[in-house]
Amino acid sequence: MIANPIPENSPHSRSAPAGRQKIIDALKSLLAEKEFAAITWTDIATRAGVNEGLIHKYFGNPRNLLFQVLKDFVQYYWERIRLDLGGIDGALDKLRKIVWNLLTIYSSEPVFGRILLLEVRNLPGYFESDTYTIHRYWARLTKTIIEEGIARGEIRADVSAFDMMNVIYGAIEHCCLPAILFGRPIDPDRLTVSICRILFEPIAPHTDGPSR
Amino acid sequence: MIANPIPENSPHSRSAPAGRQKIIDALKSLLAEKEFAAITWTDIATRAGVNEGLIHKYFGNPRNLLFQVLKDFVQYYWERIRLDLGGIDGALDKLRKIVWNLLTIYSSEPVFGRILLLEVRNLPGYFESDTYTIHRYWARLTKTIIEEGIARGEIRADVSAFDMMNVIYGAIEHCCLPAILFGRPIDPDRLTVSICRILFEPIAPHTDGPSR
Amino acid sequence: MIANPIPENSPHSRSAPAGRQKIIDALKSLLAEKEFAAITWTDIATRAGVNEGLIHKYFGNPRNLLFQVLKDFVQYYWERIRLDLGGIDGALDKLRKIVWNLLTIYSSEPVFGRILLLEVRNLPGYFESDTYTIHRYWARLTKTIIEEGIARGEIRADVSAFDMMNVIYGAIEHCCLPAILFGRPIDPDRLTVSICRILFEPIAPHTDGPSR
Amino acid sequence: MIANPIPENSPHSRSAPAGRQKIIDALKSLLAEKEFAAITWTDIATRAGVNEGLIHKYFGNPRNLLFQVLKDFVQYYWERIRLDLGGIDGALDKLRKIVWNLLTIYSSEPVFGRILLLEVRNLPGYFESDTYTIHRYWARLTKTIIEEGIARGEIRADVSAFDMMNVIYGAIEHCCLPAILFGRPIDPDRLTVSICRILFEPIAPHTDGPSR
DNA sequence: TATGAATGAGGTTTCATTCAT
DNA sequence: AATGAATGAAACCTCATTCAT
Questions:
Q1: Model pTM score
Q2: Residue D165: which of C18, C195, A34 has the closest Cα?
Q3: List of chain D residues whose C-beta atoms are within 8 Å of the C-beta of residue C127
Q4: Contact across the interface for D211 and C202, Cβ inside 8 Å
């Protein structure tokens, strides 16, 4: 029996069992040191100063624990980005904002970056997890913005919104991954300009003027 | 241009012992069925009809075996792409050719695609493996082509060749990954057009004409 | 005759705490779904909507809980059978009535049948439990009936009452067990006739007439 | 991967791995001391002087090990009984022989008796095991003998062969079980006479003579 | 070159049980 | 009377690895 599946931060969750939070913190702390696949029940329990059985009780297994941690993380940023898009009008400007936001996240949270870009996709059950659901909302929102841009004549109509969304996320991820892997810093401002120039402006020089 | 990085290893690979090849084939066959992380020595030995100790003798551990298999695969296609670029002149046309080639590989070899895009990057030692070395040559070749394009005025000078290389690979990979994961087919011809339009042409409609 | 062996236990069982009864009901409900050995404290507590510690408090362990449930069950039917034998005179008719009663019980309560015929006999402590005590009274009653039958000349004197009692119960149980295990229905009326014919009448055909 | 599933005593089984036999012997020895359900991997491995992994390799788990041991046991006696029936002509005499044989087995092998009559029927997978298959052959043979007896006029035609078979086995088992459980000796000769008198002869006294 | 046999070691999982509130 | 939180302990199971032949 696993307690509290997706408790959705119940309003008065009576301070949430101490052990539960200790376990979550222990995992976060361990993830900064080694890859998830190498983390054992014993590692987590020891770090949390808690019995292994408690992990089972609250999360069933470390995978679910990870999914829970990731969900909290991703959900938080998803909200932030949605708010951040308010008041921006042009589709390209919105996309630019998304690019900058994601680069900033990966820049300031390289550990989560490594897990999200690399490790979690291998885990059985990921594509049924809440984390992936939120990821899909992200993708869908992006695609919608592109489609609106096309509808409003800001983006040429012969572009596939789906492909463009993939290109954008691929660009972001592939620009961050090596930096994350090798511990190099990411400069979100510079990278945003660079990526958007490549994606949004004509590649050829000497046109009479850039597209914006 | 860049020379073939990894020397054809085994000088006497003609006399390759039967068991060694059987082990390699067994791994390939197993990879089509389940992810590498879930494959055990016993699995491989059983499938190969060989004793487990033999894997240990020849490869030390299954990771090295995988790296060997991947190296053979990647090296083969690396050669093919290098040959394929011969006679193409424009930088953009070369890049387009690379995009098409990679899409075609992922389309026809989804199993290897899954491993290269997803699984192998998690394995300890990957970034010291021959496979990654070849991967880096690939990236460097691409970057060189971009730089040549800039030098020859085909690509605007305010673009970072490094970033552009990452954007291209990110685009390719992110367009293929979902298809590979969920077993959907990839249409290399269509995708090449779509990706290159997004990357190489102005995003805005109504310009007097596309850049090429 | 034989007196009711087990006194109605709880003097104040009217004020039986709610949790206690919920636990009992939970076990009954679970037994319909899986074998006793596979039922855990957590299962019971969850089903009862009660804390695990409460089982411990009331019953010490699930075995005692099971014994309690079985005792209630067995005691109820024991009373019914005793009443049912009233007014029947011949020993063979009494035995026939017992056979029919037991077949009827197993037919209508296959879950308890499974537990009594199969599972409970494996449990440590069963042969010291009230349930087994009642079972022995049952056996003793049966043996007494047979002995009376012998004394009254209804049953031949060279038959061991003890063995005959065992044969009767063995016959009943072995006829029911496969049905219970494989979920087939039991026809008490037909089976009573069949079993009693085999046990009470001569096996050979063509005798001048059946024995009664 | 479990080695050697039902190896059917391969002709030149190269002396069968020492460890395998040690494991089998260890289980047999332990079964004399406690019930199967209480025997752990560690118990068996320790007693056998062998690593626990070896149990997994050869049998998968202790249940399969038990089924293997039981199968060998049951198969041996099944063969003996089949041979023993040779040359006996009358159906009732054949049945009497079966009764005596089974009683003798339970008498001389009370440990196996306890397991076969009590424990094994609870184990998941038993009804798919080889042991149960052999058990069914036994039952079928018995039923066939009864049917032949009916066809040849030795057994009255209004008797259900299926029920009679069940009555016979029930009688045997229920006469042995208490003795096995409480460690009392079984007298096969006396019990055979007693059971067959009850089953085959008229229950009422004063008939002109027993049925045979 | 290749195998069968065997092992050490540790991860994973499940439970019954306790205790403060 | 009842609960939530937590634990200790052990069973189960799997693997990589070794070694004599």
A1: 0.86
A2: C195
A3: 181
A4: yes
